[in-house]
From TrEMBL:
Name used for this protein in its record: protein acetyllysine N-acetyltransferase
The UniProt record lists the keyword Transferase: yes
Residue intervals of the Deacetylase sirtuin-type domain: 1-240
Protein origin, superkingdom: Bacteria
Keyword set includes Secreted: no
Key words of the record: NAD, Transferase
EC number: 2.3.1.286
Organism: Companilactobacillus versmoldensis DSM 14857 = KCTC 3814
Enzyme class, broadest EC rank: transferase
NCBIfam families documented for this protein: PRK00481.1-1
InterPro entries: DHS-like_NAD/FAD-binding_dom (IPR029035), NAD-dep_sirtuin_deacylases (IPR050134), Sirtuin (IPR003000), Sirtuin_cat_small_dom_sf (IPR026591), Ssirtuin_cat_dom (IPR026590)
GO MF, one annotated term: histone deacetylase activity, NAD-dependent
Pfam families xref list: SIR2
Length: 240
């Protein structure tokens, strides 16, 4: 435990000394808020009771070809509108509002709900700009939870700005994420396996002298220059 305490103190010093902090976050940041992650042993992608593999279930192809299956999967597994920000979201909001940015893979909007002003939603989110694929009319997420049909033109309604498998990252989100990484002198990776590209490729844009911290329940196997804290992110951020 003393070894872990030393790492927490080192993290505190790095944050205090940094001019600009970039947080890169994944599903593990939202699990303390009751939102399941994707790739852990109990994650969404480990479930077997689906018509297709989870990656296909969340694909543009499935949305278009099997909108009923897509809608059922997304509503049952992705929407948690009553979830509240946890200590990780709150601490990141506090720090990034002072001197930094949050670049997140998460589509739950909890970083914004926690009060963070500088957030790049790399994969979009489930709640903004829910719209009909035929005419573009926008709907409230509460309508989408009940029905994916736009009955005026028989169009399919899709869940917000969320990037599905088979779709490209929004160019503005990509540009803003790259600029954030390039600017940061401290990068803190939290709650992500860092296996999904192009998100994982963002590290290629960091400054050569930028410090880096990885906080994850499982060791990510990064090189020795990275401060690796193998612990639940909630435990770590509760001590900052």
């Amino acid at each position: 435990m003393e070894f872990m305490t030393d790492k927490i103190e080192e993290l505190k010093e790095l944050i205090d000394q940094a001019h600009y902090v970039a947080f890169l976050t994944g599903a593990g940041v939202s699990t303390p808020s009751g939102i399941p992650d994707y790739r852990s042993k109990n994650g969404l992608y480990k479930k077997k009771d689906y018509n297709f593999p989870p990656e296909y279930m969340l694909s543009h192809d499935n949305l278009v070809k099997h909108p009923d299956i897509f809608h059922e999967f997304v509503v049952e597994n992705m929407y948690f509108p009553d979830a509240e920000p946890n200590i990780i979201h709150k601490k990141m909001a506090e720090i990034s509002n002072q001197k930094g940015v949050i670049v997140t893979q998460n589509v739950d909007k909890l970083h914004t709900k926690a009060g963070a002003k500088n957030v790049v939603e790399f994969h979009g989110n489930l709640y903004d700009h829910i719209h009909c694929l035929t005419c573009g009319k926008e709907f409230d997420y509460k309508y989408y939870l009940k029905d994916y049909h736009h009955h005026e033109d028989d169009g399919i309604i899709r869940p917000g700005t969320t990037v599905l498998y088979g779709e490209n990252i929004d160019p503005n989100n990509l540009e803003n994420a790259v600029k954030a990484i390039q600017r940061a002198d401290l990068l803190i990776v939290a709650g992500t396996s860092f296996k999904v590209y192009p998100f994982a490729g963002l590290l290629a844009y960091r400054q050569p002298n930028a410090k880096m911290v990885a906080i994850n329940k499982e060791n990510l196997g990064m090189d020795s220059s990275v401060l690796a804290i193998t612990d639940d992110a909630a435990n770590v951020f509760a001590q900052l």
